[in-house]
Structures are given as C-alpha cells and as structure tokens.
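Saturday, quiet lab. Running sequence design on the structure tokens for the scaffold JK sent over.
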C-alpha cells in the first residue's frame, strides 16, 4: 500500500511547485495550439497569479520569438512555452494520395481545390527547440515525445525549468530519467491531442482520477524528493483543483476552462459550441490530424472518420486538412473546425461568457481557497 499522507494544514495554501514560481494558486494555463493561447492570454494568467503558457508547436522559430517578446512586454512574471517533440515528416506519395482521396471530396463541398503533397508538414522541431533555448524561457514543456538527456541539459543550462507530458507511468518514468523537473499528467478527459509516446494511444486513456496518484507514487512518492506532478484533464473549477491536490498533484494544468476567455483567439462559433456542449459531446479521434485528440463531434470529424484507412499519420493529415479548417475559421463555421475540448466543457456555463483570463483566475483562486477551507484538514505538500 502506498503511504499517502493525510491532508495537512498549509497556512498559505501553496505547494513547492507554486512557491517555486511565486504563483498565487497552483495553476498552469494549458498551452493550446491553434489560436487560443495568445500573448495577451498568457500574460493575463501570469499577471493574475497563475503560470501562463504559450503553445509554440505550430509556430515558426521567428514567430515563437516575436510571441515571447510580446509576452515579456506584458508581464515580468514567469511563463512557459510548449512544443511538440516531432521527427521531420517524409511521407511517401501513396500515403498522401490515400489521405487526399478522403479529404478532397469534403474540401470540394466548400469550393476548395484538391490538396497536394507539401514541401513541409510542420515547423522544424530542432529549430524551434534552438529558438526556445536562445530565448531563455522560464518554463518549457513538451508533448508527443521525449527529449534526449542532452537536450534537457541544454534547456537547464539556459535556465529553463523542463516539464514533460505523460499519459501513463512508463512515460513519466522516461521523462524523469531524461532529467525533467516536473510531469504533466494528462488524463483521458483532457481536450486536444493525446501526448502518448509509448504504446498505443487508445490504451493510454487513463482518467485523471486514476492517473494522478499512480504518477505521484511513481515519481513523487511521499517522503522522497520527487518530481512535481501537475494534473491535467477535466479540471474546470476550484473543486477540481482541490481534488487534484488531494490526489497528490502539486498543481493543475487547465486548458478548456480558458478556451472561451476574452483573450482566446478562437472563432466565436467554437466558443458558442463549448458553452452549448454536454458531458457526452466529445470524442477522441485521429481522423482530423492523424494523432488521437479529444474534441466536440461535428460533421468534419464524422465525415473524415468514415474512411479510417485513409488517415495519414501526424503531422501529414494535420497539414492536409488545414485548408478545410482555415476556411471554416474564416467563415466562423464550427461544423468544419477541429473543436478540441475536454469533457469538462459544459462546466464553463457556470461562468459568465467572455470573461477575461484574469477574472477566471481570480474566480478559481476564490473557489479553491473556499473548498480547501471546508475540508477537515487543509492541503499541504510540505513534508
Ligand atoms: C484546443 C486545445 C489545444 C491544445 N494544445 C496543446 C498543445 O499545443 N500542447 C500541449 O501540451 N497541450 C495542448 N492541449 C492540452 C492542454 O494544454 C491541457 O493539458 C488540457 O486542456 C487539460 O485538460 P482540459 O482540457 O480538460 O482542461 C490543448 C488542449 C486544447 C483544449
């Protein structure tokens, strides 16, 4: 049996992770590629006492640099940048042709020309990593893969704190062994892409409630100087934060809760569908990008899922479906966007629509302090 400690009093409600970055509450705003995590959002969260996070995966190195400069102009507080660990994609002709056989007819319904093979399917990961190292970003996190120890060491030499995403125990241990400073425990409830990089993604859909204590026992067991675990997936309010800390997490990473914020630059129809969603509205699919991801079901997901054998691996499928999704973004047409969202989306209805990120952080802070205060013993991670 693991020696989980009882909840103990913490006069200032902090955890070692939140203290390290001087956070008012143990909250990381999840990096979200595809528009949500603007510099304004990242800086608003950091200024309000959480840790704001820029999604850098879809950005060219120069764009990462300009976004980081924009964040630094808006806050002097710590923030993070997130990247996807990806090898260069060199798909054979048949893979691209097969994928387009299913994508082209959907694109044609919207007046788009047939797709073609591309010179590049995603920004070059090595160049992105070099850029982030040069920028000396306070926190850098990764998903989709594992960094080599030497790369983690380069980030440490640049003064960056390194976090790796894990969807099960073996991935958390791999990140610990690579030298990571903290683990993001991505439960099955989470919106967006699954980070799984060991084994099959459908086998790694472990709910946050089951995942967090298993990762804590693996890398942050009580009494040991371990790696902080941050719980991600399904956390939408103060109750969720307290529950995650009770499971041994030192903080939470919340994405969906910030998707509808005023600073999140996603189409209005996506925000409307989030608020109109129900607990059964999302599915995990690989049909849109070639990598499993959770989002609200819509005609785009349903039509592409009809031909599973044609789906190319990420990032090829992602790039080939992009014109279709860009048109949908221009037209504010949620039927053909990738509506990435977590299972907790309906809980966003408990807040006023279009709140600023700072107001959301303030509400979360009040909520989790109130819930913590009602528990028989307050929460602490102090040994
Ligand atoms: C629209 C969207 C895009 C996301 N993009 C990324 C990303 O680029 N990198 C990453 O590590 N996680 C990404 N995530 C996951 C979030 O950072 C966070 O871990 C997750 O949203 C937590 O679960 P929740 O959605 O239930 O709050 C994304 C999530 C969403 C909803």
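Result came back. Writing it out in full:
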């Amino acid at each position: 049996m693991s020696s989980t400690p009882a909840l103990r009093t913490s006069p200032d409600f902090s955890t070692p992770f939140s203290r390290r970055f001087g956070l008012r509450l143990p909250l990381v705003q999840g990096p979200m590629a595809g528009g949500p995590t603007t510099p304004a959002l990242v800086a608003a969260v950091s200024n309000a006492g959480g840790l704001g996070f820029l999604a850098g995966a879809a950005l060219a190195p120069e764009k990462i640099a300009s976004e980081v400069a924009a964040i630094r102009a808006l806050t002097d507080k710590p923030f993070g940048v997130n990247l996807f660990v990806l090898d260069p994609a060199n798909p054979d002709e048949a893979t691209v042709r097969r994928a387009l056989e299913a994508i082209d007819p959907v694109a044609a319904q919207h007046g788009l020309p047939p797709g073609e093979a591309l010179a590049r399917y995603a920004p070059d990961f090595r160049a992105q990593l070099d850029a982030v190292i040069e920028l000396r970003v306070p926190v850098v996190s990764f998903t989709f893969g594992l960094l080599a120890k030497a790369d983690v060491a380069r980030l440490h030499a640049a003064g960056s704190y390194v976090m790796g995403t894990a969807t099960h125990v073996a991935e958390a241990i791999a990140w610990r062994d690579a030298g990571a400073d903290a683990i993001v425990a991505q439960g099955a409830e989470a919106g967006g892409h699954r980070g799984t990089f060991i084994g099959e993604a459908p086998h790694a859909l472990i709910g946050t409630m089951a995942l967090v204590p298993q990762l804590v026992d693996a890398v942050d067991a009580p009494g040991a100087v371990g790696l902080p675990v941050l719980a991600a997936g399904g956390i939408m309010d103060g109750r969720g934060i307290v529950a995650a800390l009770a499971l041994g997490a030192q903080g939470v990473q919340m994405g969906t809760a910030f998707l509808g914020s005023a600073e999140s630059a996603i189409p209005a129809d996506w925000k409307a569908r989030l608020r109109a969603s129900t607990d059964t509205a999302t599915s995990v699919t690989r049909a849109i990008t070639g990598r499993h991801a959770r989002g609200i079901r819509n005609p785009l997901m349903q039509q592409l899922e009809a031909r599973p054998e044609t789906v190319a691996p990420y990032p090829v499928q992602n790039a080939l479906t992009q014109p279709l999704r860009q048109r949908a973004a221009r037209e504010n047409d949620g039927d053909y966007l990738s509506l990435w969202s977590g299972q907790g989306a309906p809980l966003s209805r408990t807040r006023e629509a279009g709140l600023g990120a700072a107001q959301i952080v303030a509400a979360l802070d009040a909520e989790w302090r109130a819930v913590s205060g009602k528990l028989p013993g307050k929460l602490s991670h102090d040994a």
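Notes for JK: The longest helix spans residues 357-374. Residues 73 and 225 are 36 Å apart (CA to CA). Ask whether to fix the surface positions before the next round.
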